[in-house]
Automatic annotation (TrEMBL):
Chief location of this protein within or outside the cell: membrane
Pfam families noted in UniProt: MatE (PF01554)
Keyword set includes Transport: yes
Segments passing through the bilayer: 14-35, 47-71, 92-115, 135-155, 167-189, 195-214, 271-297, 303-326, 347-369, 389-411, 418-438, 450-471
Record localization: Cell membrane
Organism of origin: Bifidobacterium callitrichos
Membrane topology: Multi-pass membrane protein
UniProt KW keywords: Cell membrane, Membrane, Transmembrane, Transmembrane helix, Transport
UniProt name for this protein: MATE family efflux transporter
Length: 486
């Protein structure tokens, strides 16, 4: 455990040490998604392309389920590490690992039993049924490996192993990129080949993480024996004192007797109340795109295509924001758990200032090169013109997106479940639905393309209000001024 990095290193150094590897992982994943689409599209089989596209949300759901124990667990564990309760953190890391496995097994059973119903729900037709079924079936079979991979990816950063977490993610992506063309084009396995490459890459990624947890991690584990009580000794004074210092008293627990599971309901709740909003954040991204497309359809398919490409460009910036914001989650959680509010205030000042400045730069750069960016994806001048206009509108709210991302991460890191949940369902969920409905009726097409920017603005205002209300300990001028010198 690199306590120096979390407790005493200069804030910019600590922040970037933890966040940069996450940003790089995000960018590599973005490249993979584009390359994967290219390999499928290069087959020239439109039914295969459509079938894989229809079932792609299943993979998104698995990532969201993995985040329940990955992000939820890392939030709780980082706060425990801040209190120097390393044994408790280690014990919960084991629980998160095996809970993810059990969740994956449940998905396998349910996914295969209800395969036909799910394919129908996803929109598979007689033309797309075969490729959709091939992709869906293999992805479902591999779901335990996909879901589990998200757990150590996030938890390793609680110990300061951000680079090792990045290595696992990038290695898995690289393997996937190599296997995809081999399985799809050389072996001729089509949609099944794409899914198989994804599953194999996740299996190898999991193998790397298991090796690292067994050989290199002193405070995290996968040893199932740690989840069970070894003796009936009462809790120590140190344990009780640590609980008294805990920001969220629900992390305190009474250990069960010998032979019983040593994980309390309160601990599971603490993981779920942070992990579930994290999962919802992933799911609402897909929901937001679907809603946007539905409101654009009356204006023609060209507008849908233009919006789709514009959102891909915006997603580049958003993924960088996510990496910088959530990469610092262990740093925020550790100092909140340690009740080091002076340093935490400094971290928050730096995070908001850096990401908002970065958002302004990205707004200017992407706006200047809007047509060139659109032309990279498509040659149709009509769609390029439409998309450039849409892109400029979407970019107006990048600073708001940065504020929302940092605040959401802070709530997740500090165990503020309600704040994290409200922001999770807001930006691309409930608030977007409202702005789409009002915008389409007040301003028609222009109201639809401006809806996301308006939703970002409203969500950013909500984020500021929630931050002030839910983290009053960071409002003091004394803490903030002192933090600037740390």
């Amino acid at each position: 455990m690199d306590s120096e990095l979390f407790e005493r290193a200069p804030i910019p150094k600590a922040y970037f040490s933890l966040a940069m590897p996450v940003v790089l992982s995000m960018l590599v994943t973005l490249v993979y998604n584009m390359v994967d689409t290219y390999f499928i599209a290069h087959t020239g089989d439109t039914n295969m392309v459509a079938g894989v596209s229809l079932t792609a949300p299943v993979f998104t759901v698995m990532i969201a389920l993995g985040d329940i124990f990955g992000l939820g667990g890392s939030s709780v564990i980082s706060r425990l590490f801040g209190q120097h309760r390393f044994a408790d953190g280690k014990r919960l890391s084991v629980f998160c690992f095996y809970a993810a496995i059990l969740t994956g097994i449940l998905i396998v059973v349910l996914g295969l039993v209800f395969r036909d119903q799910m394919l129908t729900l996803l929109g598979a037709t007689s033309d797309t049924w075969v490729p959709a079924s091939e992709f869906y079936t293999l992805i479902i079979i591999g779901s335990p490996f996909i879901i589990v991979s998200m757990t150590p990816t996030n938890m390793l950063r609680t110990e300061g192993h951000a680079v090792q977490s990045m290595i696992g993610s990038i290695a898995g992506t690289a393997i996937n990129v190599v296997l995809n063309p081999l399985f799809i084009h050389v072996f001729g396995w089509g949609a099944a080949g794409s899914a198989g490459a994804t599953v194999i890459a996740n299996i190898l990624t999991d193998a790397y993480f298991v090796w690292f947890l067994l050989k290199r991690s002193p405070n995290l584990s996968i040893d199932p024996r740690l989840m069970f009580r070894k003796d009936d000794a009462p809790r120590t004074t140190t344990d009780m004192t640590a609980d008294a210092m805990t920001a969220d008293a629900s992390t305190a627990h009474t250990r069960p007797t010998r032979g019983r599971l040593d994980i309390t309901g309160a601990e599971i709740r603490d993981i779920l109340v942070i992990g579930i909003p994290s999962a919802i954040t992933n799911l609402t991204q897909s929901v937001g795109i679907v809603m946007m497309n539905l409101f654009l359809l009356p204006y023609g398919t060209d507008t849908v295509a233009a919006m789709g490409i514009a959102l891909k460009v915006v997603m580049i910036a958003v993924l960088v924001f996510v990496g910088f914001a959530f990469g610092a989650q262990p740093l925020i959680g550790y100092n909140y758990g340690a009740r080091n509010m002076v340093r935490l205030a400094g971290i928050m000042r730096f995070a908001y200032a850096f990401l908002c400045s970065f958002a302004l730069v990205m707004t200017v750069v992407l706006s200047v090169f809007d047509r060139q960016l659109m032309r990279f994806f498509i040659a149709d001048e009509t769609i390029i013109t439409l998309g450039a206009g849409i892109l400029r509108v979407q970019l107006l709210s990048l600073v708001c997106v940065a504020i929302v991302m940092v605040t959401t991460c802070t709530f997740q890191s500090t165990g503020k479940a309600l704040g994290a949940f409200l922001l999770s369902i807001g930006r691309q969920g409930v608030i977007l639905a409202v702005t789409l409905f009002i915008g389409s009726r007040v301003a028609g097409y222009n109201g639809v393309i401006a809806a996301q920017a308006l939703a970002d603005l409203v969500t950013a205002v909500l984020a500021v209000v929630l931050f002030v209300v839910m983290l009053p300990e960071l409002r003091g001028s004394r803490g903030i001024s002192s933090a600037s010198s740390s």
